[in-house]
Amino acid sequence: MTDNPIQLVGLIGWPLEHSVSPAMHNAAFDALGLNWRYTLLPTPPGRVKAALTDLKAQGYRGANVTVPHKQVVMPHLDEITGAARDIGAVNTIVVQEGRLIGHNTDGDGFLAALREAGFAPAGRRALVLGAGGAARAVVYALAQAGCAVTIHNRTVQRAAQLAHHMQRIGVHAPVTWVPITATLAELNLARFDLLVNATPVGMWPHTDASPWPETLPLPSHWTVFDLVYNPAETQLLVQARAAGATAVCGLGMLVHQGALAFTRWTSHSPPIEVMRVAAENALKH
Ligand code: NAP
Questions:
Q1: Residue 45: which domain range?
Q2: Which residues line ligand 1 (CB under 6 A)?
Q3: Of 23, 3, 73, 11, which is closest to residue 265 (Cα–Cα)?
Q4: pLDDT tens digit sequence for 35-50
Q5: Buried-most residue among 38, 95, 97, 142 (CB within 10 A)?
Q6: 128 and 159 both lie in a single domain
Q7: CA-proximal residue: ligand 1, atom 46 (nearest)
């Protein structure tokens, strides 16, 4: 540890009890000998503006933002960087000379994890399940990386709105959606290379559930990326492995989005493996 005064960052969200981010970031600060701490800032709906005022008043260097506030914080920030504006959500705030700057590291964190798993997105085709906050970041990141995206969502209108939004902002690859009349079984699955689950289906405690029908075979050439990381081995990933597909758990995205935030706050290179082990250990408890 240095003699420098303690520097604080926090997590704004509600509820927060199960977050593994403090363990992940505090392990990274310790590994680099930085006198920084990551704290939980539980913020009920209606208190977001006050939480941001407190962040500045208490000298915080920044924060992560999680469910349900990733969009709610946006009007209260001084500046929003390009990807966060295009995605329509902020997951990282940097306090810079008293100004609150909003970033989004979810999309790049997802891409880093995807590439780490050996999948190069340029020129490929992805099927994304879900059209909520996480899907927005994933769809944007994939399309900007040159991967064509088809969105399938329970509420078809939300999938259409997300695709239209991406088309309007002019992403680098086509983004379409599955219309209400089509089920997953009716899609030409062979033309896709990547399946991303951006729904919470399969998440603890509903670990027997899968967003993919048990009776519909997954193509063996697919990479299947489940954003869910608790449990690490979801029912979807069990199905993927059984089909001979490549299975990727959401923990890598969690670690990489955190690592990118870490660098924005501290300007240090993140100790990725330390963060991964800390997140894995925190999830076990
Ligand atoms: P969200 O904004 O609430 O969106 C959830 C999406 O899932 C919506 O499109 C919703 O469809 C769909 N959905 C919800 N329940 C469903 C069900 N029973 N059947 C079919 N579709 C369902 O949530 P989010 O923030 O995008 O998070 C989604 C998941 O990603 C969560 O499990 C979250 O933990 C995970 N995540 C992981 C990371 C990571 O770093 N690995 C980062 C962010 C999020 P409707 O539009 O019809 O409601």
A1: 7-104+257-284
A2: 67, 106, 130-135, 153-155, 158, 198-201, 203, 227-229, 250, 253-254, 257
A3: 11
A4: 999 999 999 999 999 9
A5: 142
A6: yes
A7: 155
